[in-house]
Amino acid sequence: MKGAFRNLLVRRQAQRAAALLAVIVAGLMLRGFGYAAGLPFVIVKYGGSALWGAMVYLFVGLFAARSRPAILAVIALFLAISVELFRLYHTPWLDAFRLTTAGALLLGRIFSLWNILAYVIGIVTACMFDPARR
């Protein structure tokens, strides 16, 4: 029985890792080419934020593999809101990092309550499609 559970856990983690990679690629493509493809600002901006929230959920799921999806969602939401609130903190070196591509993608630049809503949508969507729910 332990072997079957272990195989199931490994398969779920592989699916989460594949989903994480797909979400990262989709987010980078949306932010990099969304405007050029003619997508509206709302889709590019908040779609990227929703994908970022989904990424956080999947990343947490890789480290807390045995936790229930609802617990993962709460942890991911806490982390996402913490990062958003961290945008209110400013120092010269941190603001300089935020101006880089990596800084903008990881930490963002400007605090927004709308981003938090987008994170919730992304986290809930990722939770709904989590392989562990099946």
Automatic annotation (TrEMBL):
Which Pfam families does this chain map to? DUF2809
- Residue ranges annotated as transmembrane are 46-64, 71-90, 110-129
InterPro entries, sorted: DUF2809
Q: Which keywords does this Swiss-Prot/TrEMBL entry list?
A: Membrane, Transmembrane, Transmembrane helix
Superkingdom of this protein's organism: Bacteria
Which protein, by its recorded name, is this?
A: DUF2809 domain-containing protein
